[in-house]
Amino acid sequence: MHDFTDHPGEAIPLDALTGSLRDYRAMRGTDMLGRTDGFYHWQDVRRRADLWPYAKSTATAPRTHCSAKSDAGHPIKGVNFASQDYLSLSSHPDVKHAAMEAIQEYGVHSAGSAALLGNTRHSLRLEQRISEFLNGRPTVLYPTGWSAGFAAIQGFVRPDDHVVMDVLAHSCLQEGARAATRNIHFHGHLNVRAMERRLQKIRANDTDNGILLVTESLFSMHSDTPDIAAMRALCDEYDAVLLVDCAHDFGAMADDGRGHMSLQNVLDDVDIIIGSFSKTFASNGGFISVKDRASAEYLKYYSATQTFSNALSPVQAAAVLAAFEIVDSEEGCRRRRKLMDNILYMRAEMTKVGLETLGDPSAIVPVRVGAEGLARIASRELSNLGAIANLVEYPAVPQGGARFRVQVMSDHSFDDVDRLVELMLKAMRSAEKQYLTLCDAHPSLMKNQRSAAMAADLVRDAA
Fold first, then answer.
1. Contact status, residue 282 vs residue 89, Cβ threshold 8 Å
2. What is the 3-state secondary structure of 134-184?
3. FRET pair for 178, CA 20 to 30 Å: which of 163, 237, 338, 440?
4. Which H or E run contains 426?
């Protein structure tokens, strides 16, 4: 690992602070494999400078404190705010016991598609359990949350239909739409008036085909939520179907665990509900819940990621089922309340020291940094200091709006939160010095100076 402490910024290559993943998305040329070289070179420059924050690996269970390694193999150890185990169930003894019992009974593999012989008594019971939790809605399981999101659109939408979706909708939703139709209409983030304009224009020209209005109940990069009741009203007015992806709040928010659909009292107003097991439910997998048996049966044979993927393994299904029993219990309610206590405490402590949190209270606490180069240095410094939090940068968030995507767990203590806030502030101060030194040395970085100055104001205020 390089040591940048004595001479801030001096050893950091300029290429490691500039550019984005978007630059390498649409590559040209006949050499389909060789044209990936440019991306690898840029990535490796960042990796060698210890400024590539992705593809970390855990060396211990992803609990509130853990050991991990960077993509370059550098050890990281400390307080962990990078795991989406919101209710801290991945190491819960009941969940682990259920998984081990399933292994003893079934082995580790479903060994087939759910359309053939891949179901087990665990997966069938899990479908039933989710249906009960959602007021009797028929439910279909998927091997990943991403595949469920993709399938919910690809399975129902046909080429002449229309999809209206938030510009920040998750990749699985956007890719599902692209697989289904060319008629995709994006609107500004959470902008109900823009939704209505899209719907009005579509219906003025097409009264024969379907419209799917797509949103998320909690947007994971911004921690904000739509007005679902207003969207339901638009669907009624323009003869559209409402789809809500509840990946990040389902199970983790509201006293009853039904997330923003419960908080907004709209559970019965949503036509298609998508959920993921990879956040609150201690495993991989996902589900789609609909309003009638016919829709569910159709998905089983016309959504590709269900029909042509192996079913959830018995281990996964048993673990999720055990997690569901906890989520839908008094213990689950206590865990959600403890989680929210941690969230509110963290937001308050971040504000006290001058760090800016974005969005609304949820298990995701976005902490704004600013310029991408500054954020990359801050991420490295945070890891070196002994805290783990994921960095998100353009194009996942707006350019110049890089942020830490802090993920809170119910088992975190206030001391854990205090530690993160302390180390994040130190990391920001160190990164600011290094980044401003580099801006002085490289005028081409000055276009990002405004973002750096904003971050500088934050840490100066904190001092």
1. yes
2. CCCCCEEEECCHHHHHHHHHHCCCCCCCEEEEECCCCHHHHHHHHHHCCCE
3. 237
4. helix 414-441
| pTM assigned to the model | 0.91
Q: Does residue 226 fall inside a structural domain?
A: yes
Burial class (CB in 10 A: 0-12, 13-18, 19+), 305: buried
CB 199 within 8 A of CB 238: yes
pLDDT tens string 181-231? 999 999 999 999 999 999 999 999 999 999 999 999 999 999 999 999 999
On whether the CB atoms of residues 383 and 401 are closer than 8 A, the answer is no
Residues 134, 273 contacting (CB under 8 angstroms): yes
Burial of residue 28 (number of CB atoms within 10 Å: 0-12, 13-18, 19+): exposed
What residues make up the domain containing 142?
Answer: 93-327
Query: Are both 184 and 266 inside the same structural domain?
Result: yes
Q: Which residue has the tokens 């692209």?
A: 178
| Domain identity same for 248 and 167 | yes
**CB 112 within 8 Å of CB 118:** yes
| 291, 298 contact by CB (below 8 A) | no
Residue 24: burial class (beta carbons within 10 Å; 0-12, 13-18, 19+): middle
